[in-house]
Write a structure and sequence with these properties.
Layout lengths: L9 E7 L2 E6 L2 E6 L3 H12 L3 E5 L10 E3 L2 E5 L4 H20 L10 H21 L5 E5 L6 H8 L4 E5 L7 H4 L5 H8 L4 E4 L2 H14 L8 E4 L2 E7 L6 H8 L2 H14 L4 E8 L6 H14 L3 H4 E8 L6 H21 L7 E5 L4 H10 L2 E4 L8 H9 L6 E5 L12 E3 L4 H13 L2 H17 L2 H13 L1
Parallel strand pairs: 1-4, 1-7, 4-6, 7-8, 8-9, 9-11, 12-13, 12-15, 13-14, 15-16, 16-17
Antiparallel strand pairs: 2-3, 5-6, 10-11
Helix pairs in contact: 2-3, 3-4, 6-7, 8-14, 9-13, 10-12, 10-15
The structure holds adenosine-5'-diphosphate-glucose.
The site of adenosine-5'-diphosphate-glucose (ADQ) has 20 residues, from β12, β13 and α14.
Length: 463
């Protein structure tokens, strides 16, 4: 019999370990990676004496398992050829664009499939080695969609959950994938498959009925004599941690100096994203330029700051989108800037948590306009910093977060004029409306934080 949900050991299986190697005083040392997922899962794994199976992020044979800050970590190694074919190839050049509405052409290469299956097998074997009777396996994301069924074969009695962090596409798109049946059967090895939104869960159910032998409607499917539950678990942030950081006097001081640096009386519109073609940064810049065309003194009164974290720099489409963003920024500043005023500021780097929060605090308007996004945590992080109830969130309808953050100014990011209008309305919004909307948004992120998300998923896995 399985132990109760709050007792079972949890083995997290994710593409990346929750740590990365950095240069320290005594050579290379492990450092916990930032982010909501790690801060939500690490305490659960630690308290329950569990383990985390993942790739350390560098090429070569894996180091032996080790304990870091009370977490038992089991590294899985990838060679350079597998980084190219499994990670940059099948995961990030086939699945990523296909699952994001094919906003870039997904590449289908037969020679990427085999490494995807081999690496998934390696992760499943590594997890099976640490799983003990009564443990629970929680597998994460599109890199590891075959792991649930592989684990089911290796450890038939283990309870297996899978959570998909990115969208699951409509069946018309998913149908293009030559390996669609294997992927679906891989996922159906789980007892519970969680998605960010109801639409994604529905897309999966339709695809599973069409291309596998799974049957059933709603949230329960029958597959190979087992019950598989399909459900929705919108991920969130560590709201208390971000709010606490925003409330520190030093954060307020830093936010003030960011505003002062822009020039007196200027309003700040902020974008913060991993640099990815799904995030709609080019569309956003075009909308900002349209706003400048409309405002008489726009270039003197508004600054748009785009902060982009370098990401997947070796995948050609990412290099291409980076170049296009830089050209677009140069074009707008060349056209609208003066010796005194730079309308667009652009940072291509990751910011320390304290600085990121200070930027959220400094922003009058936050624009989060992905063309498609599983959830989008940036939108929730912005809201968590706005204790004064001010600030306006402009949010794409195509972010999973739009299902919950309904009091944001919702936009279709493909509609450049519409997005420019939303920015304009956000800048001119009466304070009562700003506070009413932000109050409603804050209630959402206070109610549903990442800890509730993890508890809901694990609760469902045991029910
Ligand atoms: P991402 O595509 O990475 O996540 P998102 O949810 O917005 O997108 O998370 C990005 C994270 O990176 C945020 O926590 C943010 O604070 C951080 N970040 C962004 N810019 C930064 C900067 N310049 N410096 C430092 N940190 C920065 C994937 C899916 C999403 C889903 C999440 C979680 O694509 O849809 O919401 O997983 O499931």
């Amino acid at each position: 019999m399985n132990p109760s949900p709050d007792r079972a050991r949890i083995v997290v299986v994710a593409n990346r370990l929750p740590v990365a190697q950095v240069a320290g005083k005594a050579g290379k040392e492990w450092k916990t990676s930032p982010g909501g997922l790690v801060s939500a899962l690490a305490p659960i794994v630690r308290e329950r004496d569990g383990s985390w199976v993942g790739w350390p992020g560098t090429e070569g044979p894996p180091p032996p398992s080790f304990v870091h800050e009370g977490l038992f970590l089991c590294p899985v190694g990838l060679c350079q050829e597998e980084i190219d074919s499994f990670y940059q190839g099948f995961s990030n050049s086939t699945l990523w664009p296909l699952y994001h509405d094919a906003v870039r052409w997904p590449e289908f290469h037969r020679h990427w499939w085999k490494p995807y299956t081999l690496v998934n097998e390696r992760f499943a074997r590594a997890a099976a080695e640490v799983l003990q009777p009564g443990d629970v396996a929680w597998v994460h994301d599109y890199h590891l969609q075959l792991v649930p069924s592989l684990l089911r074969t290796l450890c038939p009695d283990t309870r297996i959950g899978f959570f998909m962090h990115i969208p699951f596409p409509p069946v018309e798109l998913f149908a293009q994938l030559p390996w669609r049946r294997s992927i679906l059967e891989g996922l159906l090895g789980a007892d519970l498959i969680g998605f960010q939104t109801k639409n994604c869960a529905r897309n999966f159910e339709i695809a599973a009925r069409r291309f596998s032998s799974a049957r059933g409607t709603g949230s329960l499917m029958d597959f190979e004599g087992r019950r598989v539950r399909i459900d929705t678990f919108p991920i969130s942030i560590d709201t208390a941690q971000i709010s606490a950081q925003a409330a520190k006097p030093e954060t307020a001081r830093l936010a003030e100096s960011i505003k002062q640096g822009l020039g007196p009386e200027r309003r700040l519109i902020l974008g913060v994203d991993r640099l990815d073609y799904t995030k709609g940064i080019i569309h956003r810049l075009r909308a900002f330029e349209t706003l400048l065309e409309r405002l008489e003194d726009g270039a003197q009164t508004v600054t748009f700051l785009q902060i982009a974290v370098p990401s997947r720099e070796l995948v050609p489409q990412y290099l291409d989108i980076r170049t296009r963003i830089e050209q677009q920024v140069g074009h707008i500043n060349g056209t609208w800037g003066t010796a005194e005023h730079v309308p667009v500021r652009y940072l291509y780097r990751s910011l320390p948590f304290e600085e990121l929060v200070a930027h959220y605090l400094a922003a009058d308007v936050m624009v989060v306009t992905p063309l498609r996004d599983g959830m989008n945590l940036v939108s929730k992080e912005y809201v968590a910093t706005r204790a004064n109830g001010d600030g306006v969130l402009v949010l794409s309808e195509f972010a999973g977060a739009a299902n919950e953050l309904t009091e944001a100014v919702l936009v279709n990011p493909h509609d450049i004029d519409g997005t420019a209008t939303a920015m304009q309305e956000a800048l001119a919004m009466p304070p009562e409306e700003v506070h009413r909307r932000m109050g409603a948004l804050r209630r959402v992120v206070e109610r549903n934080d990442v800890h509730l998300w993890a508890d809901s998923f694990l609760g469902a896995l045991f029910s």
